Amino acid sequence: MTRPRIGLALGSGSARGWSHIAVLRELEARGIHPDIVCGSSIGALVGGAYAAGQLDALESWVNELTWRDVVGLMDISFEGGLISGRKLLGDMSERFVDLDVEDCAPAFAAVATDYESGTERWLREGSLLDAIRASIALPGLFSPYPYDGRLMIDGGLVNPVPVSLCRALGADVVIAVDLNSDLLTRYPIRRPEADDGIEAADEEGGSGLVGRILSRFRGEETAGPPMPRIADVVARSVNIMSVRITRSRMAGDPPDILVQPHLAHIGLLEFHKAEKAMEGGRQAVRRVAGELDQLLGNGGL
């Protein structure tokens, strides 16, 4: 009997995606070597590095990242997104060898979203770095990226954990990594604290008009809980979208084994917390070790 073809679906999740590196390491340590790797957003970046034989270089890079480094890669732009992505792509081009997606081994494909039509696109040819950059174009943050004559945005918008793509490429067994499973339940919502500047403005205003206007923006005079900060609203909205789309897609096409790292404590752009993210990945694989052994056997795949 021939062994089943194993597909690995690496999900979206921004900075939480460094956990994919540890997931791959843990699987390899158990003798599990995927034949097909598909990635969405940050999953495309890690999966592409693995399929190109450059996971070591990626791991070394992310382990050295500081917050200052992360900020340094953000080339501010107001054309399509806050970050143009040219700096990031240039840095990756210097550190990693680009190759055609078709030449990757294991087989690789990335998911992106067509900006104009909103359709899901499977990127399976051409420059690997171009495919990765197209897949990670998070709306509002990264500018859309041209690919095959069309503008692409983040693959997580349509297929956050690309199980369906793995199966389409011939996988018999699919291991999926969902980075967003605990985002809405594990940690409480952060509430805004009192702002001394508003009290000072109220005193200077005499009648308190300025202070009342500012406090209304903060939600202090509205019924119910205080209003969160704008950045918190945006981040949580992205989380809600990611969780709901992921659940919907996997309900229709469930993986054979689901790996769910606990990563809610890592923020959207906290790429400098690679070790914490990777520890989450290690622990997640160990939690499903029994399932892996039962489904795939102990002989090494």
What does this structure look like?
The chain is an alpha/beta fold and 301 residues long. The protein contains twelve helices and ten strands. Strand 1, helix 1 and strand 2 form a beta-alpha-beta unit. About 5% of the residues have low confidence.
How is the secondary structure organized here?
Elements: E1 6-10, H1 19-29, E2 36-40, H2 42-51, H3 55-64, H4 67-72, E3 81-83, H5 86-95, E4 107-114, E5 120-123, H6 128-135, E6 140-142, E7 145-147, E8 150-154, H7 163-168, E9 173-177, H8 196-204, H9 209-218, H10 230-252, E10 257-259, H11 274-287, H12 289-296
Helix pairs in contact: 1-11, 2-3, 2-6, 8-9
* Rg from alpha-carbon coordinates: 21 Å
Round the mean pLDDT to the nearest integer and report it.
83
Tell me the fraction of residues in β-strands, as a range: 5-15%
Helix content: 40-55%
Secondary-structure class: alpha/beta
Low-confidence stretches: 192-207
- The oligomeric status of these chains comes to single chain
Q: Quick one: overall form?
A: globular
Profile the largest sheet.
Answer: 8 strands, mixed
